[in-house]
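Dear V.,

Thank you for sending over the compound details. I've combined the ligand you provided, pyridoxal-5'-phosphate, with the protein sequence from our construct and run the structure prediction for the complex. I'm sharing the raw inputs here so there's no ambiguity about protonation or stereochemistry in the SMILES, which I know was a concern on your side last time.
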Amino acid sequence: MMTREIPPIYENILETIGRTPMIRMNALAKDIPGEVYAKVEYFNPGHSTKDRMALKMVEDAERDGRLKPGGTIIECTSGNTGMGLALAAVIKGYRLICTMSDKQSKEKMDVLRALGAEIHVCPTNVAPDHPDSYYSVARRLNSEIADSFFPNQYDNLSNRQAHYESTGPEIWEQTQGRITHFVVGVGTGGTISGVAQFLKEKNPSVQIWGIDTYGSVFKKYHETGEFDPQEIYGYITEGIGEDILPKNVDFSLIDKFEKVTDRDGALAARELARKEGLLLGYSCGSAFQGLRQLKHLLPPDAVTVVLFHDHGSRYVGKIYNDDWMRERGFLREEWKTLGEAVQGRAARPLVTIGAEEPINNAIVQFKRFGISQLPVSDGSTYVGSLTESHVIHALTSGEGGIQQLVRTAMGAPFPTLPATASLLDGVKAMGETFNALIVRSQDADHIVSKHDLLAQLA
Ligand SMILES: Cc1ncc(COP(=O)(O)O)c(C=O)c1O
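Below is the predicted structure of the protein with pyridoxal-5'-phosphate bound, written out as structure tokens.
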């Protein structure tokens, strides 16, 4: 073990905020050009980078009188800012009320309660200006409670100033000024803007990459200047992406935004735990995945720093829980073969139709089994396929109405693949031509529709 400086005795927990380690990334950085370092912010006492800005917002407000001794702090938070505020409130003697959206993990709420905070849970899927949003509720409580202070981390510029004063200089010093790329998830924008301002003042060519989520407005706004409400929809990733433009995001300092899916962010976080020993929060997976998606832009001598916002302990019931991952279809790699896709279908024998039957029989089968296509069989092999489109085409163009024979209306047989074939093989075999395919396993044939297959790839 390498020798490290022994820290001094601190006067209270707040003095331990900051000076977090930077750790080289090894296994997962092998195919990323240059050197990759992790700025691991869960070493802060509240286990996230937000301790830095929470303390700064409180101390700035104390200095200019917005926060009075014994007052109440009210903040809307995804949990981590609340944790930093809770530590400050405990040591400095304030009451703390946090408004949180109901998608935040229960662990985050329980941890805040453990530190004495009062929690108001608000619905996630409402617009920020809706009276029930966690933002509006915080504002309302602020107007109702005497001697209360609403830090408002989104628009309070003490947030990014904290990172300008501490996180940025630490990163510069730890890389001895060699940093070329800084990658970080963006929520309020405090971390990216504060760090970026400091690094760009030192070296304007340092590239700043912000990681965004699908469902958030940042990337499009940065690229086009348009705030597009069409970009906004519910997502699962916590802490990054927004449906507003917080004042703390200084878009002029950000060189590029990259979006990461909920699934890819979650899987990357799990990989970081297993391959680097870093048990990190959800958005950290997104940040690393974003870097991976952009790695082709890195020169061979790049020195990249990815900031990891928080610790994984707050996500044990979520991304580190296989059932939670499976319910959302995030563990696709566990469902690799077509055989696995039709598991449990033994009791549901394949429904077929004969080539010499009237199409009326097919319509009856569609209705009875709630299906949209049938393999056409001559008793021993598949000689064709009949879909709803075939039937409609026959009814509108043929003479014989519903008594026409299936043979006259059917298309080519569905492709048949072995159960050991992959989902991707299935997609390729279906292509744009077929609505379904036949999976041949030892016991029987089963049909997998395009809909079934695509549902697994979402
Ligand atoms: C887990 C997590 N990741 C990322 C962020 C984004 O950081 P910032 O708000 O500084 O942009 C936050 C902020 O709330 C967070 O809690």
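A first observation: The pocket of pyridoxal-5'-phosphate is lined by residues 50, 78, 80-81, 185-192, 238-240, 281, 283, 309-310 (CB under 6 Å).

Warm regards,
I. M.
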